[in-house]
Amino acid sequence: MTKFIIRLLVLLLPLISPVVTCQIKKIGVPFITSYSPKMYKAASENWDVLQNSKGMMFFANHFGILQFDGVRWSIVTQPENRSMVRSLAIDQNDKMYVGAQGDFGYVIQLPNGQYQYTSLVKLIPVSARNFGDVTHTVIQNNKVIFFSSEGIFIYNNNKIKVLQSKSNFDDFFEVNHEIYVSDNAKGLLKLQNNKLLSVPNGEQLIGKKIRKIFNTKNGLLLLTQKEGLFTYQNNKIKPFLTEVDYLLKQNQISTGIAFSDGYFGIGTRQNGLIVVDSAGRLIQHINKQMGLQNDYVTNLKTDKEGNLWVTLKEGISLIQISSPLSRILDSSNSETKIYNSLIYQNKLYIATDNGLFWLDWNEYKNGKRENVHFQHVSGMYENVWNIGVFGNSLLAFEKNGIFEVSGNAAKTIAKIDGAWKGILIPNHPDLLLAGGYTGLYLLKNTNGSWVYQHKIKGFEESSRVIETEKDGSIWIAHGYKGIFKLKLNTTFDAVSELQFYNQKNGFPSSLFLNTFKIDNQILFGTTKGVYKQNPVSKKMVPDPVFKKYLGLGSHIRLLKPDNQNNIWYLSGENTGKMIQKSKGNYQIDELPFRKLRYLYVPGFENIQTTASGDVFFGTQDGLIHYSAVKNKKYQTKYKAVISEVKCIFPKDSLLFSSRYDVLPNKTGSPNDTFSVELPYSNNALHFSFASLFFDDAEATTYEYWLEGFEPEWSDYSIQTEKEYTNLPENEYVFHVRAKNIYGVVSEEAVFRFEVLPPWYRTIWAYILYFILYGVVIYSVIKYQKSVAERQRQQLILNQEKELLRSRAELNEQKLTLEQENMNIMRENLESTINLKNAKVASSTVNLIHLNEILLSIKDLITQIDKKNDPNVNFSLLAKINKLIDHELQGDKQWNEFEEIFNQLHDNFMQRLKSTYPELTPRDMRLCAYLRMNFNTKEIAPLLGISVRGVEDTRYRIRKKLQLPSDTNITEFILNF
C-alpha cells in the first residue's frame, strides 16, 4: 500500500501546477528556448500545456493536441468536431481529458502509439450541448470538471452533471483542491458537492474579471484582468499594491502561476511575463524584448525539471527558471562578444568587440530594468581586450592603446600599437606594466593619474597573458611559441634577463600554453593538464593537486581564484569550480556550467568573480551571470522514447507512431497486446527516437543497440534516427538511451519486433524440403543404378566400337600411307615421263627437221652429179651452204621447242626473260639447254657453235645474271 501511495504521488507530481519547487532568478534573464509555429508546424495559438508521467509534453493547440518529445513535434489527435483544443488535464494513468470548442472528452494512447479521442458530449442532455470554449479542465478526486462560460460539466461514473448560470460564468479556478467560479451576475462562487455556493462578499468582485487565484499565508490572492491584484481574507477584499501595478493594469493579466518562496508569475496580454515576490516587488519582467516570441501569454506551467513552459498567442517558449545561470540583457542588446567584465563604483562594465559599455548594476539587479540600458563609453569603438582598476583609475586596454575611463567617456593615456592587459610590477604599486601586440610598455602613477613612460627594450613578442612573482620575475605566455620568463633592469626600461620554455623543457607541447597565478604560485595551462616548474631541475612537471582533480587529458584554458579560496577553471569544453574543503582538498562542481560549452570566445575565455558571490562569464552570446544560491537538481531521472518506427521497403509504412492519422487501425484499448511480426520483404526498418529532457535538448546525445543483430551499444552521438536494412529473420529488441547535457543517462526505451523468414525458410517449407529430399534421394539412387547399368553396357559397346575403330583407323592409315607413296611414285614417274617426253618430242622435232634438211641437201647433191658443171656445182654448193646457214639461224624449230619447254618447266623462259630482259635469244636457248642439264659439248652442236663459243656465251650470261664468281650457273638455272 505504501509503495502504491508513493507511486501515485510521483505520478501526480507533474499535475501540481500552481506550486512547484522552483524559483526564478532575480538577476539577469533566464535562458529562453523559443518554438515558433514554423518549427512545430501547427497553429500559432496555444492555450494550455501538460506533462504526462513519462515526461512527454502536450499543448492545447488550435489544430488539436500538439505533442513534443524533445526532438519532434506532431499533432496526435483532434476532437471529433475538429475544433480547437483549449484545456488539458491528465490522471495517474496518463488518460488525458480534453476541453475543446463545443466538445470535450478523453484521449488514450493505443499500443501502436496512436492517440484515440472519445467525446463525452453524448452524455449530456441535448438542451445543454450548445456551449463554446471549454477553457478549463480539472481532475478532482474521481471527478473531471469541464468549464465553459455557458456551463460547468461534472463527469463522474460515466455520467455528467450540468451546472448553468443565467448570466454565464466568467472564469474557473482550482485553489488548494478547492474550486472557485466567478459569475458575471453573482461574483465569486465556490463549488461544493456539485453545487455553487456564494462566497461572503463575493458580489464585490462582480465585473473585475478574475484571471487567477492563489492561496497565500495572507489569504487568497486574486489577479484581475485590468484592476491589478486583490487579497481576500476574513471575508474582506482589499487591493494588493505592487511595484508593477502600472504594468499589470495597462497590459491586462491573462494567467498566473505560483513559484516557491512566495514568487508569483503573472502572464499578461500585452507585455509578457511579470514575476513579483510575496510583497509585490518586481523580480523579473520577461517580454518580447527579452526573448519571448510574443507578449500575449495564454498559460504558464512548469515541468518536472522546474522549467517554465509559456504558451503564447503565437508560439511556445521554454524559460529555464531553475538554472543558476542567466543572461545580462537589456532592451537595447547592444553588447556582442564579451572579452572582459568588471563591477566598479556600482557600474557593470563590459569590454566587447564594439567598445566599452556600462550599466547601473544596483538598479539592474534590483529588477528596475525598464530604464536601465548598457551605455557606450565614448572614445572607444573597437576591440576592448581588457579592463582593470589600478589605483583609483579604471583603465581599458584597446586595439588603439590604453585608455582611462571616467564616467561615460575615456581618454587616451598611451597611444600604442594595440594593448592587451596591464599588471602592477611587484613592490612598485606606482608602476604598471602593459602587455601589447609587439612587446611591453611602462606607465607610472603620477599625482593619481597614470602617465605613459616608454616601451621596454629587449622584448618584441605579443604579451597578452602576463603574470608576475614577488622577486620581480615576469612570465609571459605566447600561445603559439611557448613561455617567456624575463626580468627588467633597475630603471625598468629594458629586459635584463630572458629565458624561454617550450616542449624541450618538459611541456607536452609548445602550442596553446597559458600562465596563471594561484596562491602566489605560477602555474601553466597546457593541452595535457596543469604544469609547474620544478625548483631544482627547472623542468616543467605536472602539478600533483591539479593532476588529481583535473587529470592530464584536457586542455587547461583558464584558472581563476576567487575570494573564497575556490578555483574556477576551463578544462577542455568544461567549466567548473574547485571548491576548497581543506588545504589541498577540493570538491569539483561542473554540472551547473555545462550550458556554457562552446559559448566562449576562443582564446579569450574570461571569468570574473566578485566579493558578493556574483560570477560573470564573457561569451560570444553576451554576458552570463551565475548565482550560487540557486539549487538546481541535476541528477533527475528521465526517459528516452521511441517516437516512430517504420518499414522502408517496399515503401514507407509506419509500425509505431503517435502522429495523427498515419496508422490505419485506430480502434482498440490500451490493454490490447501489441506485437510486430514483419514479413521478410519488410526487413528494413527506420527508428526515430528522442529524450524527454528539455533543458538544452539539442545537446543531448544518444546510444542505441539492436539486440539480435549488433554485439554491443553504439557510441554516443546527437543522431536521433537509425536505419537497418537486410535484417535476417530473427527476434529483435531495439534499445535506445540518452545522455543529457549534465551527463545523466536516461531510462532506456525498447521496441520488440520479429522478422519472419521468407516462405522458403518456414517450417512447412522445411517439411516439404525434407519430403522432396527423400524423394530426390530415392530417385537419385534408382537413377544412379540404372545409369550404372547403362554405363556398363555402353562401356562394353564402346570398347567393341573402339576396337573396331582402332582397326579401321590402322587400315585407313595403311591405305593412306600406301596412297601417299603411290602418289609420290606417280608424281615422280610423271615428272620423268614428262621430261623424257619433252626430250623425245624435242629430239623428234629436230630429227624431222634434220631429215627434211638432209633430203634438201640430198636433192641438191643429186643435181650436182647430173650436171657436172663446175659453175653450176659451185652454185649448188653455195645454195647448200646457204640452206644450212638458214636452218642454223632459223627460229621455227626453236619456237616449237620453246612452247613445249615452257609447258614442262612452268614458263621458265617467260619468267627468265621478264627478270633479266637483257638476255638475247641465243642466251635464252643456252639457258634452256642448261635447264635440261645438257653439258657444253651437247650444247655446242645445238647452237652451231664451238665448245669455246659455248663457254664464252656462258660467261656473258653470268655477267648479265650478276652472279658471283663462286656460284654455279647451272645450279642457279635449275633452281630458278
TrEMBL record:
<dbReference type="Pfam" id="PF07495">
    <property type="entry name" value="Y_Y_Y"/>
</dbReference>
<keyword id="KW-0175">Coiled coil</keyword>
<keyword id="KW-1133">Transmembrane helix</keyword>
<dbReference type="InterPro" id="IPR036388">
    <property type="entry name" value="WH-like_DNA-bd_sf"/>
</dbReference>
<dbReference type="InterPro" id="IPR015943">
    <property type="entry name" value="WD40/YVTN_repeat-like_dom_sf"/>
</dbReference>
<dbReference type="InterPro" id="IPR016032">
    <property type="entry name" value="Sig_transdc_resp-reg_C-effctor"/>
</dbReference>
<protein>
    <submittedName>
        <fullName>ABC transporter substrate-binding protein</fullName>
    </submittedName>
</protein>
<dbReference type="InterPro" id="IPR013783">
    <property type="entry name" value="Ig-like_fold"/>
</dbReference>
<keyword id="KW-0472">Membrane</keyword>
<keyword id="KW-0597">Phosphoprotein</keyword>
<feature type="transmembrane region" description="Helical">
    <location>
        <begin position="763"/>
        <end position="781"/>
    </location>
</feature>
<feature type="coiled-coil region">
    <location>
        <begin position="800"/>
        <end position="827"/>
    </location>
</feature>
<dbReference type="InterPro" id="IPR000792">
    <property type="entry name" value="Tscrpt_reg_LuxR_C"/>
</dbReference>
<dbReference type="InterPro" id="IPR011123">
    <property type="entry name" value="Y_Y_Y"/>
</dbReference>
<keyword id="KW-0812">Transmembrane</keyword>
<feature type="domain" description="HTH luxR-type">
    <location>
        <begin position="916"/>
        <end position="973"/>
    </location>
</feature>
